[in-house]
Each structure stands twice: as C-alpha cells, then as structure tokens.
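Researcher: Re-running this chain for the archive, since the previous output was lost when a drive failed. Same request as before.
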Amino acid sequence: MSSDIVVVGSINMDMVVTVSRQPKWGETILGSNSFMSPGGKGGNQAYAAGKLGASVAMIGRVGNDIFADQLLQNLEQVGVDVACVERVEDESTGMALININADGDNSIVVAPGANTLVTPDFIRKHEGVISQAKLVMAQLEIPLESVLEVAKIAKKYDIPFMLDPAPSMELPDELYELVQYIVPNESEIAELTGIGVSDKRSARVASVALLNKGVHTVFSKLGAGGVVVTNKNRTFLIEGYDVDVVDTTAAGDAFAGALATALVGGKDLWSATGFANAVGALTVTRSGAQVSMPDMDETEQFITSSTK
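Model: Regenerated structure tokens:
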C-alpha cells in the first residue's frame, strides 16, 4: 500500500521529569511529575501527520522489547503504516531523557539504540515505498549518511524532501542541494549558517544563506514569534499564537508533520504554514510528545476561535 507521506527517522520512548532547574554535574535533585510518552522525532512527525488524517508510512528500527510494542501500537492507532519498521534483536529501542522546567522549556538526552541501525542499506531496502510518496521527511536522529540516502532516493523519483535539521550538526553541501523544505528553529538555523536569529530580519538573512546552499524553501521557526518562510520568490511571516506554554517537547515535530499534511493536501505555502503554526501552538499547551498533538477538529476549532 502506498502512502502520501513517508517519514524516515527515529522512534523513541521518552522518559519525562518536571524539574525546578537543571542539576549540576555530580548533583541529585528531586523532580515532581514523571511519565513515559512515545516519541522520537521521526515517530513524532509520523504521528502528527497521521492524527491529522494524512496517509503516512514510517520507516525505522526499534528493539525487540516492550517499548517497541507500545511505540508501534501508538503509531498504528492514528493510522500510520509501520510495515517498514523493523525490530532488531539484541538492541534496545531508542530512549530520550527529558527534563522540563516550570516555563515548559526542556533539555533532552537521547540514547539512540536501534535508531543507529537505520543504515543506507536499510533505506535502500524500502526504496519502493519511498518512490510512491508525495513527500518524504527525515530528521537527524538517524545516521547522517542515511539521511543523505533518503534525499537521493527522493530526488531520483522527483519527490519533495523535507528535512528537520535536529539535532543540529554540520551538513554536507550535497544534502542541501537535495532539500525542498527545511524547518529549523532559531538555534538550528544559527548552527547551520553562523548567523544569530532572533527576529524576522535576522531569520530572513539566515534563510537566504541556506537558499544559497541549494535549499528551495526555508521555514525558520521563531517559537512564539511565529514562522518566517523564505524562498527565491518571496518572504513572509506567519505570526505566532499567544498561548499558555506547558511543554515545548515535540512542538517542532508537530509543526513538521502538519506542514507535510497541508502540503500534500494541496494547500499553498501561506495556508500550509499557518495551519502548521496552529498545530505547533496547540501542542505546547499540553505535556508530552505525541500525546500532546491535536487532531484536525481540534486544530480547526483553535484556528477559528483565534481569528474571531
């Protein structure tokens, strides 16, 4: 069965603890709330698109453990096709250890586990699935050479490739030239370009630097400041929403999954970005990763109530 959106990336179980501050090295502090939540940037983006009603397939690897069962069941509940997610013997499912403070900001340590085995050879095994997509997505929680392989296959079949450059790292010039859509936040675009980003003007300057590397369209996410969209033809700002922030975990993933959903659904850049911005805003008002993401009805109601 073909899917409109194919997501290649990480699948993790998140272990979340609320803290008053980050501990120092050698220090133990007491947290308050704690819970487990399905996550991983790849899994999150697939889940976000699936919950919004998109046709989605996930390509990745998990361990042969209880976390894998829970993660795959969670994706299947929103209609994500997990036939291309492989269980690996004698390897753990990826895990993320997340601390959240009172302002909803987080710090994350990822133990990738089976995600490191999403190799170029493994990607090539699933070329047939990728070749039938309308849009292909990847992130940087799998090996970089595998991300490049995904982008090459997408290019081979003339399929738009969306890259979430997180966690941020130096990227090869060859990869930039294969990217149709890139969705960095302020720190990520600064890492990629060496240009500090804090507002629309600086976001545009940094975005142009990415265009010069070969990227087609840049979505520079400014958190509450909104999203600056830049390509060779135009630049525009979609204003942010004023919401009560509970937890910023997976907001960027929700944005990416929603953006992909809107684009394959035929929305133009302006409408697609506005829709994705609303999904990201709703996500930060709740705790957790996938569990915090809205469905289509919730999103449409939020957009309607915010424009009154």
